Amino acid sequence: MLPELDVVRLRHMLDAASEAMQFVEGRARGDLDSDKMLNRAVIRDIEIIGEAAGRVSGGTQAQLGSIPWPGIIGMRNRLIHGYFDVDTDRLWDTLTDDLPALAAELRRILRSR
Q1: Structure pTM?
Q2: For the chain, what is the domain count?
Q3: 1, 17, 21, 93: which sits with the fewest CB atoms below 10 Å from its CB?
Q4: Residue-wise pLDDT tens digits, 36-64
Q5: What is the residue range of 104's domain?
Q6: For the segment 75-102, what is each residue's pLDDT rounded down to a tens digit?
Q7: Which of 27, 55, 76, 78 is flagged as catalytic?
Q8: Where are the beta strands (DSSP E) in 1-113?
Q9: 76 catalytically annotated
């Protein structure tokens, strides 16, 4: 059984991932360079995912080993502290490759609780 506060944070992660994926639906990689609002919006959602992940208890993180906690938290830190040098290719890969799998796993976890 997961602590309720951790469940709330997992939902925050899922909500932000879902929103970011909606923002890039039907978009191309170049849109991150040409559409500043899109760029900032998806960065903010990834920051939220990482912030929420960092606040999930260590016990829950250990229990949910299918989630790449250090990578998620590390990306949040990189975006926050390295805001002046964001690798938009890596950002796009995260949005199109990593977030769908993360969202699916979070949905599975939240359904099974």
Answers
A1: 0.96
A2: 1
A3: 1
A4: 999 999 999 999 999 999 999 999 999 99
A5: 4-112
A6: 999 999 998 999 999 999 999 999 999 9
A7: 76
A8: none
A9: yes
